[in-house]
Design a protein that fits this description.
The protein is of the alpha/beta class. It has helices at about 5, 15-20, 25-35, 40-45, 60-85, 100-105, 120-130, 150-155, 175-190, 205-215, 220-235, 250-265, 290-295, 350-365, 380-390, 405-415; strands at about 90-95, 110-115, 140, 160-165, 195-200, 265-270, 300-310, 325-335, 335-345, 370-380, 395-400, 415-420, 425. The strands form 2 sheets. It has a 7-stranded mixed β-sheet, sandwiched between helices. Strand 9 (about 335-345), helix 14 and strand 10 form a beta-alpha-beta unit. The chain binds S-adenosylmethionine (SAM). S-adenosylmethionine (SAM) binds next to helix 3.
Length: about 425
């Protein structure tokens, strides 16, 4: 972990980490990439001070680590190859995590725009810039994928079509978040043109087929361990939403995910993984029988390529709306912290709210927090996590009032109950 970043005055690393625990999965991924033998992953690990492979410590047996390394290398190399063959020259990697993709693609003449949460970009961008042969072709931007303004701003200087790659993110989102991300990507494709490629919808299937083909049927238990490591690291209960296929019911869930894309004016081509699988370094750690079974199994798995569906006369009501800029005002009197929030409470803004609460709490005892939400337009899981944290850390807890309809819908799914006219609190056993 970067000590300078942790100690920085204008960036509360601890609040960022607690609000967005999923950032840790990016470090696990690059450890697995180094295990698989992907070029430059070991250099990145070293710069991140992760030579001890700390993020892999919770994976107890070597098959679990090897199985995960196979999945991660398959995704990385196949995605790089699909991007290279997309016909576009600008890759927008959302989320970029800590992978060597920027190095690989810029060596091939691509322009690379890496987007991720601030906690990743602040640590990772200087590392890549220090080891890249073509740093001028690389830009990093702090975004929240659910926040359209942050994405639009990041691409403001781009005047050519883009290939957006999304690897290892969509399974961490709730249904309303995944809906927001798809809507945002559609809007970016409308402005810039291009395509969107992702392995995420079939990720559970890819894991299952990989473990089964390489280690046999009994490996399903190892797979459960992988799922629970990812859930713990991301603080997400079940890694499931309408865009992630359910292996128990593939045909229905493919339809659900396709309908979701259609509702956003996107069409999908499912690209067969076996037919596009590059040679993997990790094969050196497998027997020839395992390699053959693995390649055969990948015939059942697909990566998804989305483009605008020109045949649909699509009208996006969201495009006419503009979010209010985020604003937080507060006063503190007689043990009560009164706040007013405006705009979006997401991965970018939520850590500031937590920091403010903790700063006030250091100077005085906070009994209760009351938040006026009349201008709060959206709340993501990161925002909900901050509400939980605040609630747990003051005697009388947190009260929200004047909540609008769309935020109410989200609160209802997250354990909040109404206890007066438009007054909301968390139930005791949330
Ligand atoms: C499993 S990692 C994948 C990173 C990289 N694409 C890879 O394949 O290794 C998940 C990434 O999603 C990022 N992430 C999570 N929520 C996000 C959000 N709301 N907006 C942007 N990035 C997000 C995390 O910071 C993390 O880097």
């Amino acid at each position: 972990m970067n000590e300078e970043l942790k100690m920085s005055n204008d960036f509360n690393y601890s609040a960022q980490a607690r609000t967005n625990p999923v950032f840790q999965t990016a470090k696990t991924a690059v450890c697995l990439m180094a295990r698989a033998g992907i070029p430059d992953a070991d250099k990145i690990l070293h710069c991140l001070k992760l030579d001890d492979n700390q993020p892999l410590k919770s994976m107890t047996d070597s098959d679990t680590i090897l199985g995960n390394a196979i999945v991660v290398e398959t995704k990385y190399r196949t995605m790089c190859s699909l991007i290279e063959n997309s016909g576009y020259h600008t890759c927008v990697d959302l989320p970029c995590g800590c992978t060597p993709k920027a190095l690989h693609l810029t060596e091939k003449g691509f322009r690379f725009i890496g987007m991720d949460l601030p906690i990743i970009v602040r640590e990772f961008a200087p590392i890549i810039n220090s080891i890249a042969t073509h740093p001028n072709a690389i830009t990093f931007c702090e975004v929240d994928a659910t926040n359209y303004e942050s994405l639009e701003q990041a691409l403001r200087d781009i005047d050519e079509p883009i290939c957006i790659s999304t690897e290892g993110m969509l399974m961490y989102f709730s249904d309303d978040e995944v809906d927001a991300v798809i809507s945002n990507i559609r809007r970016l494709l409308e402005i810039h043109g291009g395509c969107w490629i992702t392995p995420d919808p079939e990720i559970k299937l890819q894991f299952m087929l990989t473990f089964h083909s390489v280690f046999g049927e009994s490996s399903v238990r190892n797979l459960e361990k992988t799922g629970s490591t990812a859930s713990k690291q991301s603080d997400v209960a079940n890694l499931f939403n309408s865009f992630i296929l359910n292996v128990e019911n593939l045909s229905d869930s493919i339809k659900t995910a396709e309908n979701l894309l259609r509702s956003h004016g996107l069409k999908v081509e499912r690209i067969n993984l076996a037919e596009n699988l590059p040679e993997l370094s990790v094969y050196r750690q497998l027997t020839s029988a395992q390699i053959k079974q693995f390649k055969d199994a990948m015939q059942q798995c697909h990566y998804w390529l989305m483009t605008l569906d020109e045949s649909q006369n699509f009208q996006d009501n969201v495009t006419v709306q503009k979010n209010l800029p985020f604003e937080m005002k507060y006063t503190f009197e007689n043990g009560v912290l009164q706040m007013t929030l405006r705009g979006r409470m997401d991965s970018i803004s939520a850590p500031n709210i937590l920091t403010t609460f903790e700063k006030e709490k250091l100077s005085d005892n906070i009994d209760e927090v009351k938040i006026d939400c009349s201008e709060l337009e959206y709340i993501s899981s990161a925002g909900i996590r901050v509400f939980f944290d605040i609630h747990k850390n003051c005697n009388k807890g947190l009260v929200l009032f004047n909540v609008n309809l769309s935020v109410t819908k989200i609160l209802l799914n997250k354990g909040f109950t109404e206890f007066g006219v438009n007054k909301w609190k968390l139930s005791k056993n949330f």
